[in-house]
Amino acid sequence: MREHKILLVEDNPVNQNLVESLLSGRGYLLLKREDAEQALILIRESPPDLILMDIHLPGMSGLEATRILKSDPETKMIPILALTALAMKGDEARVREAGCNGYLSKPIRYKEFLDKIQEYLDQDKGSVHGT
Question: What is the pLDDT of the chain when averaged over all its residues?
Fold first, then answer.
């Protein structure tokens, strides 16, 4: 069975550590980047199975990075889950409009978080990378 590669794009070290602790021991390879520009480089070099994208990042926003990824035939099939503290009415619609496949709000509720990740990885079944 292939190890799933998940990219976390998050600039907050506390949130990085939380996600890492939740995913460790579950057979996932977690890659981390603190800004969208570096994440885009990594994604093009070694596409992950799933991207967890913070929305408020230094420099380019997570929504802008998502639009870039979803407009590129090479990366448009990679599922992207918005991981954000946005919780206002209409925020979920905004992240979906940008191309995010799903939405997880902070603070992270660990069971919902892990279930959502597994749901998107199960949908993939290797279709993104042909495995």
Answer: 88
